[in-house]
Amino acid sequence: MGSVLTIRGGVPLTGKVPVRGAKNLVPKAMVAALLGNSPSLLRNVPEIKDVDVVTSLLKLHGVEVTKDPVTGDLLMDPQNAKTAASRDIDAHAGDSRIPILLCGPLMHSIGEAFIPDLGGCKIGDRPIDYHLQMLRNFGALVEKRPGGIAISAPKGLKGAKLDLPYPSVGATEQVLLTAVRAEGITELSGAAVEPEILDLIAVLQKMGAIITVQTDRVIRIEGVPELTGYNHRALPDRNEAASWASAALVTKGDIYVEGANQQDLTAFLNIYRKIGGAFDVDDDGIRFYHPGGSLNPLVLETDVHPGFMTDWQQPVVVALSQAEGVSIVHETVYENRFGFTEALIRMGANIQVHRECLGSIPCRFGQRNFLHSAVISGPVQLKGAEIDIPDLRGGFSHLIAALAAEGTSRVTGVELINRGYEHFLDKLEGLGADFDVAAGK
Ligand SMILES: CC(=O)N[C@H]1[C@@H](OP(=O)(O)OP(=O)(O)OC[C@H]2O[C@@H](n3ccc(=O)[nH]c3=O)[C@H](O)[C@@H]2O)O[C@H](CO)[C@@H](O)[C@@H]1O
Ligand SMILES: C=C(OP(=O)(O)O)C(=O)O
Q: Catalytic site residue 357?
């Protein structure tokens, strides 16, 4: 039974929070360790659920994993990698999307893989068609099995000329993790180039891979027969940083996010400043604060990097509910990422969601009946409510709203937040939030 959080809102969050390695890099760098012929050391690893899930999956496949939670050092030795039973893999896959990325590394290290149906946030259909198509182009055989897919490469994996119809982060990583040890050259057009992908490329290069990131979303990989282990410090979690930044703005607080990196947050910082938030960057992090006065409404579209990241959208929508005037947010990455607004509306936010594309970025969801544009009018006084957290970022945005609201909120489903926010209750306590946690009935 999950715990219940009782939040008494209205306290500005002030203080310091550290952010460690990115949820959207660390599990993938862990998967990459399977490609090496010697141990890998990943540093700055946070204690989050997605890391635990991949740790279990690696262990099931014979990888020795040793972790120091305090330093964040994670040592992985893949030298005895082996096949695992599909029912065990299924039981350990958890609520994560990472298992699909095991395909290439497992085919290279043990010749086959079983991949269970994926978890991850329910913010759209989230198909894996690009992943499977890319793998087939390398020569992999993909078979549907109960509860997942079986994948093998009886004739080996060969480099290919590939083109993604949309710059999918996961499918780009799938190609990288497969191409590095495939025979010959792979050229991927339409690739995603998120900072986490560039950091994964850095990991793979340390292992001996030959990867060139060209202009216009083209990545070229020359396959090599063998890779070694790596020693790498994971880039910081820019999505967690942006969430705390929004929390500072919404609660009229002042939060120093230790570890936040300006370069990875450029698009976010521009929007933060336009809304009326203030920030100071130094060598170790970024201070985010509400400088007083009213917040400004704006028009915003989520997009692939270098655009405004979709995972920043939900916390920023809460900030826009406090801006003076009408804002428009067009979500172009996921077709169904406004479900979280239902709870905000119950808390008093003035938000309408629309099927039309309210923006200029060509989007795959227009005229397809998806509620993917939001109109937000503010400012409103948010009020405490009963909330059941639906997903990671939507859930964090609900927490922020409850922390700023008048009165008390009762929040269930908080365990979902552990998937991407390390020690978030300790961090909230350190920032002065007024809450209790009780075991649910
Ligand atoms: C663990 C991780 O890193 N998660 C991130 C990753 O998710 P993830 O890698 O799952 O996201 P993708 O970039 O692949 O998805 C983007 C869009 O492409 C679609 N698509 C994707 C694959 C496919 O085979 N077919 C298909 O249609 C998806 O449904 C979605 O509409 O990138 C997203 C976009 O920056 C982020 O929101 C997630 O936080
Ligand atoms: C959508 C997200 O993650 P995942 O892809 O792991 O579900 C997220 O981090 O906001």
A: no
ipTM of the complex: 0.99
- 366-391 residue pLDDT tens: 888 999 999 999 999 999 999 999 99
Degrees, nearest 5: CA angle 69-70-72: 60
Amino acid identity for residue 291 in this structure: P
Stretch 408-429: mean pLDDT: 96
- Looking at this protein, which amino acid is placed at residue 114? F
pLDDT digits (tens, 9 = 90+) for 36-66: 999 999 999 999 999 999 999 999 999 999 9
- For the record, the structure tokens of 229 come out as 């282990």
| pTM, entire model | 0.97
Structural domains of the chain ordered from first start: 3-19+236-439 (3.65.10.10), 26-233 (3.65.10.10)
Binding residues for phosphoenolpyruvate: 23-24
Pairing type for strands 218-222 and 210-214 reads antiparallel
26 Cα–ligand 2 center, Å: 13
The residue nearest atom 4 of ligand 2, judged by CA position, is 120
Euclidean distance between CA atoms 205 and 180, whole angstroms:
9
pLDDT digits (tens, 9 = 90+) for 410-419: 999 999 999 9
pLDDT at 441 over 70: no
Determine the Cα–Cα distance for residues 215 and 401; give it in Å rounded to an integer.
Answer: 40
Atom of ligand 1 nearest to the CA of 364: 31
Nearest-CA residue for atom 5 of ligand 2: 120
Which residue owns the Cα nearest ligand 2 atom 8? 311
